[in-house]
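MIP05908p structure dump, as promised
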Amino acid sequence: MEQLFQNYRDDERRIGEEYLSSLQDLNCNSKPLINMLTMLAEENINYAHIIVKVVEYYISQVNKTKAYLLKNKDTPAYTQLIDGRH
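structure tokens r here:
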């Protein structure tokens, strides 16, 4: 994660670290946390490029099985995995 913010100013680094920390707390579908992340992004619209970088980084670190399930949620493979028929 150090490398993620190494070329940014202190204020950009602070925003990025704060957003990443909050994003890492999102481990289920929590409307209050999603709303808070949305408000944080809106409050820091001038740092949108940093927030996008954080989200891209976070997605790249997601467990590949979870990412597969989300990407393929409308396929028979998803249904089989969820139903335990894999």
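DSSP finds five helices and no strands in the chain.
lmk if u need the other ones
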